[in-house]
Amino acid sequence: MASRTDRGVSAIGNAMLLDSTLSGGALLRALNGIAAELFFSHAVAVDPSFRVRTAEERAYRYFEIGPGIEARRYRRWAAMLTGRIDVRSFGRRLPDGGPVWRDVTEVRVTPTPGGAIVEVRAPSFVWGMVRKMISALRGLDSGRVSEAEVRSALSGGHRLALPLAEPEPLVLWDVRYPVAWTHISGTYGRHQLRYWAESRKAWASRGPVLGSVGLPPLGEIGVRPGRSA
After folding, report:
1. How many CB atoms neighbour CB 204 within 10 A?
2. Is 96 assigned a catalytic role?
């Protein structure tokens, strides 16, 4: 697989390498019969030396939803997290011996109803990187972390202790390679389409259900959206 995710993180775009005697179109049809919740959309034959883990770029989106979250404020800090950065403060189980550098192509913040979508693009990520970047944005936005502290950590000056943001709002959105897909699936099976329709209906009902259980808003019980009590 091109990318692995934490428990609770979803993937709308990923890639896998496999051996098969089937042609591209037949392979997609066979793969789409494996499980209703798996959708295989593109295929291409590659050289045996091709490494699926060596992607050109990966993109993650974090759906930061909750009272008081504004895209314009997050956008103020997003550019700070791009470029060549030391990710020791933004990863898990990384050594303390010296900076661990990664190149971040872009951190884009766009408004969405109820909050913001934070999209992070990079050739590669360390474990927990996006979730800790979200924690840094939250800390900067609330004033719990200073701009000077974050800049120092990003440049290799010191290591910040940042918590992991919740995994459920995070989605692996895309994995890109310098190849042209030769087979694209135009249809999916009935079981997949049924799963898709039922999933959309279930998610659409969650808001009204949670809104009617009688609990006070999060802000009234001492929990900031996106953090644990």
Report:
1. 9
2. no
Which stretches of the chain drop beneath a pLDDT of 50? Answer: 221-229
Beta bridge partners of 108: 119
d(CA 189, CA 191): 5
Which residue, 50, 36, 5, is CA-closest to 199?
A: 36
Whether 168 contacts 192, CB under 8 Å: no
pLDDT tens sequence across 199-216: 999 988 987 887 788 776
What's the pTM? 0.85
In angstroms, the Cα distances linking 223 to 146, 219, 220 are 22, 6, 8
User: How many angstroms separate the CA atoms of 135 and 193, rounded?
Assistant: 36
Q: Which of 118, 16, 1, 102 is nearest to 59 (CA)?
A: 118
Q: Between helices 129-142 and 71-78, what is the axis angle to 10°?
A: 110
Please give the domain boundaries of the chain with CATH numbers for all domains. Answer: 9-52+182-211 (no CATH), 56-176 (3.30.70.660)
Cβ atoms of 29 and 17 within 8 Å: the answer is no
Classified as helix, coil or strand, 117 is strand
